[in-house]
Write a structure and sequence with these properties.
With 146 residues, the protein is α+β, with helices and mostly antiparallel strands. It contains 4 helices and 6 strands, in the order H-H-E-E-H-E-E-E-E-H. The protein has a 6-stranded mixed sheet with strand order 2-1-6-5-4-3.
């Protein structure tokens, strides 16, 4: 396993699985670029570490037990692609929606970019409609189920 791959696995565990915002300072570069993440409010933006911490909090508030299971990694130079499964229970507010108490399980892929041993950004594909469907917020064709 490369140094960057070990860093990414430690980042996923500390930051995303445990929600340790202080660990962001150890793993994330000064400028974190979200190259592409359709549907994410931060898509296309460059975040400071403090802004990244805000993104972490916004992501984990609806799903305090959020965790990622890494299925596969591919490393090429300063890029690491991971295929993952995200699990969590909707026990906190998410935008205008109150907690449903429902679990989610979705899959996605993320390419992380490294600079000087730190994570400097990502490009991600995830089915956000599947989250809404699993929470009962959208029907199978994307229509509101209420």
């Amino acid at each position: 396993m490369t140094d960057n791959a070990r860093t990414l696995m430690d980042f996923m565990e500390a930051v995303w699985n445990r929600g340790d915002a202080a660990a962001v300072d150890r793993f994330v570069a000064d400028a974190y670029v979200i190259h592409s993440d359709p549907g994410d409010p931060w898509d296309g933006k460059t975040l400071s570490r403090e802004e990244f911490k805000g993104r972490l909090l916004a992501s984990r508030t609806p799903f305090p037990d959020l965790r990622f299971e890494i299925a596969e990694t591919v490393t090429e130079g300063d890029r690491i692609a991971i295929a993952w499964r995200m699990l969590g229970t909707h026990t906190g507010p998410m935008g205008p929606w109150a907690a449903t108490g429902r679990p989610i399980a979705i899959q996605g892929m993320t390419v992380y970019y490294f600079r000087d041993g730190r994570i400097a950004g990502h490009r991600q594909v995830v089915d956000r409609l599947a989250v809404a469907q699993q929470l009962g917020l959208a029907g199978p064709a994307g229509r509101n189920s209420t």
